[in-house]
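your task:
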Amino acid sequence: MEAVECIKGRRSIRDYTGRDITRETLEEIVETASYAPSWKNSQTVSYIAVKNPEIKERIAREGMMSFVPNQHRVLECNTLMAVLTENGISGYNADGSATTTKGSHWQSFDAGIAAEALCMAAHALNVGSVILGIYDEAAVAGILNTDLKRYSISALIAMGYSDSRPRAPGRKSVPELLTVRE
């Protein structure tokens, strides 16, 4: 799949078939996503793939802040991918001082790049995904046994195969998006 086709063709997929995403496919998706750029090539992003139905059920019940649409996504997806970022590295010097006035902003920026790269890699393999933004980080971290002093759970991504492709919503025009100063 060509890059432009992948970017323009990817949609947030919220409904899934029962088809399993194999470990090999997950590994290929993560290996491809590992090429996402990061602050000073720090590569602070890692992933936890949750396939276990009991763990997904706990996350849906305890970690989705009673937001029913996300509870359904977690329960119905084949794999729930937690995107973790190591704290205190992106945007900082080796001595811990902020490199820019943006400070920890770069940690979220790196996580966003990695999440999009993961979703694009999944799409290229016909695996659908949707980034879930409403969740209780502390609750999910407890369920996944993740140390929040060391890592942030920057995103949760529901993944699975879909037998439909939603249409693209309208997009702003280039003149609305682009200002050129010459």
In short: The chain has a mean pLDDT of 95.
